[in-house]
């Protein structure tokens, strides 16, 4: 989520400070006072503008994959999506890691689950379901199958993010980009097309 262009300067300053601090330090190690200091505002304004530290975290740690990542022919979506993930900017990586580190908090866990549903499962489901009747899709999906395939696809992507960004699997990190895109893309494609 991004702020509206007409948001007050103090709210924009809080949002940017919080996004940076949460990404660098995590949810638990970032205080409202630190955010206010970074934003050069009174700490009371943080609560006035965002309601709570948790709400501010959820608003600033929102990953927007974008519809373009799911566009194109269904039969090559796996490789294209893995290439997109590998090319993701540091902001997406930082937000993903901040969300993961904060996932033991009930409110944050709920947000993380919703982000998974809205950012990965729903767009994959929509894309898979839209391929029904597409001669390029060898296994057209009914709605239950589209949901299963979307959840499997999201899990495949999540596994890659975890391996690369959390445990920093050196074996994967040292593969040539094209090899990783091709081989991991084939795993994702198998989930997408069944």
Automatic annotation (TrEMBL):
GO-annotated molecular function: DNA-binding transcription factor activity; transcription cis-regulatory region binding
DNA-binding region per UniProt: 31-50
Any Pfam family matching the protein: TetR_N
Record-linked InterPro entries: Homeodomain-like_sf (IPR009057), HTH-type_TetR-like_transc_reg (IPR050109), HTH_TetR (IPR001647), Tet_transcr_reg_TetR-rel_C_sf (IPR036271), TetR_C_16 (IPR041678)
SUPFAM superfamilies membership: Homeodomain-like, Tetracyclin repressor-like, C-terminal domain
Keyword DNA-binding: yes
The keyword Cytoplasm is assigned to this record: no
Stretches assigned to the HTH tetR-type domain: 8-68
Protein keywords: DNA-binding
Protein name: TetR family transcriptional regulator
Organism whose genome encodes this protein: Microbacterium schleiferi
């Amino acid at each position: 989520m991004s702020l509206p262009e007409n948001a007050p300067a103090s709210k924009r300053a809080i949002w940017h400070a919080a996004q940076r601090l949460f990404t660098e330090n995590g949810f638990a190690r970032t205080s409202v006072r630190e955010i206010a200091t970074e934003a050069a505002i009174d700490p009371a304004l943080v609560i006035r503008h965002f309601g709570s530290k948790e709400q501010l975290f959820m608003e600033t740690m929102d990953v927007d994959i974008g519809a373009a990542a799911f566009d194109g022919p269904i039969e090559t979506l796996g490789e294209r999506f893995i290439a997109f993930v590998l090319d993701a900017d540091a902001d997406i990586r930082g937000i993903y890691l901040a969300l993961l580190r904060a996932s033991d908090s009930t409110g944050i866990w709920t947000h993380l689950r919703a982000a998974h549903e809205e950012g990965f499962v729903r767009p994959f489901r929509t894309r898979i379901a839209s391929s029904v009747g597409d001669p390029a899709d060898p296994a057209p999906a009914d709605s239950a199958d589209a949901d299963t395939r979307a959840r499997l696809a999201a899990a495949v992507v999540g596994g890659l993010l975890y391996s690369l960004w959390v445990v920093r699997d050196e074996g994967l990190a040292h593969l040539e980009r094209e090899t990783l895109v091709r081989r991991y893309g084939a795993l994702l494609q198998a989930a997408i097309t069944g």
